[in-house]
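The pair is set out directly below:
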Amino acid sequence: MSRALAAGQTRGTARTNQARTPTTVEPIFTRSVLPNGLRIVTQPIPLGRSVSVGLFVGVGSRHEDDAHAGLSHLLEHLVFKGTRGFPDAGALSETIEGVGGSVNASTDRELTVYSAKVPRQAWRRALEVVAELCLRPLLRRRDLAAEKPVIVDEIRMYIDSPADHIFTLFDELLFGAHPLGREIAGSPGSVRRATADLVRSHWEAWYRPPHLVLAVAGPVEHEAVVEIARGWFSDETPEPPTPIGRPRTQPPTPTAPGTVKVAHRRLGQANLLLGMPGVARDDPDRWALDLLGAVLGDGMSSRLFLELRERRSLAYDISTFGSMYADCGTFGINAGFDPEQANAIVRAILEQLERVAQEPVLETELERARAYTRGRLELRMEESGAVVAWLGTGESLLPRILSVEEVVEQLAAVSTEDLLRVAQRYARPELARLAVLGPFRGSRRFERLLPG
């Protein structure tokens, strides 16, 4: 089980400041909403040999206050300890693995997801399993006591992995005390303080039909899926309980540009994350900013990889990153490097940001980035699990599900002028904040490297 979902990226070509209004594209998915509020989205893959199922719950670590930090992730773990239909730990996984399938779950900032993938003939079993996990967990006190040490170990594992922990450090730096600035899984202390009553209240509040999206992709009929899902809430009470502590949904106030956070660790390879506030997921600039990220650091032919790794040997790995939430986002550059090269790599990254904010990207470079992004998207959507993630996150987090064709149109509408504009607005060196993990004591040397 993982704590977070993966995020995607994109980019663009020549024309306007606004996101393009796409032409009407006939959706290839089918959507239904049951009277109780459960949304069901399916997409047929007639020749597919697998079926993927996802049940998306509209709650994540962002919706927790300090007292309940990590509750969504803790619940995601606990449901695997036993359900009404599979009361013994391991029995549920056994029933899926017995047909050659897999089952998993993940918690993110704004969603929790339960998923299964099976051979096509076992699709009903996949639906049964995700429904058991999400809707019929036992949530026993003894299971909570047994699972807490496991989650504490998981948190320690992330801390012990520099490539993971640097992102947590950056979120803490940028968002401070806001829920987006916390580790998704909470802290060892918050996990130990969680009670069975709190966990059950969280489940009762959020694992209700209006907060749920069921997504299915593969050689299955939509109506067959709807018929099964209709029976899931036959014994549901008409009025679900009120959630404890309404979610904090206000946007965070980012820390000031030039802020630095250094975590001392005796490492042979240091890690840094130099970044700034990005855009919300419905911002029209998202397409141009994604393409800018591709030009800078997505792939082995990107500027940062070629200049900092291939030509100057300043980093082992370097890439751009980005996250988009309901009302904010992040954008920046992540690198693993020799600690002795710390000053040189920060300066080199800032040089590349200055260049892209001052000089228009060449049309040929933009076309390469656009083709790369489009191709990666199209290849990813060959897999039923990726289709389910696309449908479920789109239905849960966006005003509507976008088609791949619509995304390709938005990418095609981005111009070199758009890239220059978003670079100047979001990626100027003066906007940078810096998180560093490695054998460094104090932040003064890095503060002197940042503009201002």
